[in-house]
Amino acid sequence: MADEKLEIDMVASVHYTGTLPKNNEVFDSSEGRDPLTFLVGHKQMIPGFEREMIGATVGERREFTLVPEDAYGMPSDEHVVKVARGEFGDIELVAGMTLMSDSGPFTVKEVNDDEVTADFNHKLAGESLTFSVEVVELRSASETELTHGHVHGPGGAHH
Ligand code: ZN
């Protein structure tokens, strides 16, 4: 099936390196790890990533740069909230630290005795992102995977 192409509803495994074009800093890479496996077209990936990879074949390498709108979006004040200091109990809080919550990770922007300003914007919001991606494996998704909207087995959910 060497002529298979990366399409919606296929399971794709890729090796990738993501860099910030402004300073060439690597923010994420699968190098030295298992490839990233995802179900194409089910919102598992940022929108521009899939769009740029559609039609790629196994062994093909693509490099592209996404504007923030095609990646993690622009930072918004709506995602910055004030939380009572008491909610954090005895945790020592320092501006700049990243904490996990039920609603996902956030950055502590400001701390005073009464309240904490929590920034839930993605740390890559507002950034253009450059990706170098190589397709390692492609296969059709099973019906169960399509129903669940994610990959099963290696690189995916085990249930
Ligand atoms: Zn599942």
Task: Give the CA-based shape.
Answer: elongated
In total, the number of strands is 9
CATH architecture of the largest domain: Roll
Query: How many angstroms does the end-to-end distance come to?
Result: 28 Å
The helix/strand order is: EEEHEEEEEEH
In this entry the ligands are: zinc ion
Average pLDDT, all residues = 95
Structural class: mainly beta
- What percent strand? 35-45%
Characterization of this structure:
With 159 residues, the chain is mainly β. The protein has 2 domains: 10-72 and 124-148, Chitinase A, domain 3; 77-119, Thrombin, subunit H. It has 2 helices and 9 strands; from the N terminus they run βββαββββββα. Strands 1, 2, 3, 4 and 9 form a 5-stranded antiparallel sheet that branches. A hairpin with a 3-residue loop joins strand 7 (104-111) and strand 8. The radius of gyration is 19 Å and the shape is elongated. The model has no long low-confidence stretch (mean pLDDT 95). The structure holds zinc ion. Residues 148, 150, 152, 157, 159 line the site of zinc ion.
